[in-house]
Write a structure and sequence with these properties.
Blueprint (H helix, E strand, L loop, with lengths): L7 H11 L8 H16 L7 H7 L1 H21 L3 H38 L9
Helix pairs in contact: 3-4
Length: 128
Amino acid sequence: MYRPVDDPGLERELRRLLARARPPAGFRARVMRRIRDEGEDRAPRKFGLWWLQLALLRRGALALAVCACCVLLLAVLAIPDPSDHRASEDRAATVAERELAEVLQLAGSQWVRAQNVAFGPDEEISDD
């Protein structure tokens, strides 16, 4: 309902509604008891294991999930795969075999050249 601003009844009604009233007897004690009782119901439970406390709290559950993902990622990336190690050893062995074959061919050709220089190309060399 709309009343004009200059209505004297409106001012009296506002003064009555906004007047400071004294609370009834025992009001403060009832409020404090109710606050204490509700606080006890909402109090978090105490657990002996700190990680369990983290898991049961909302923010703690998120933190625990992030930590678990980090540990899992670290385990996947840090632990070498044995098959990768064997493959790299096989590659290294293959390269070493090729290099050894080249060295032996070079040594053999140098040996033949040295024999030809020392004894001549037509002479037969005995193994005495």
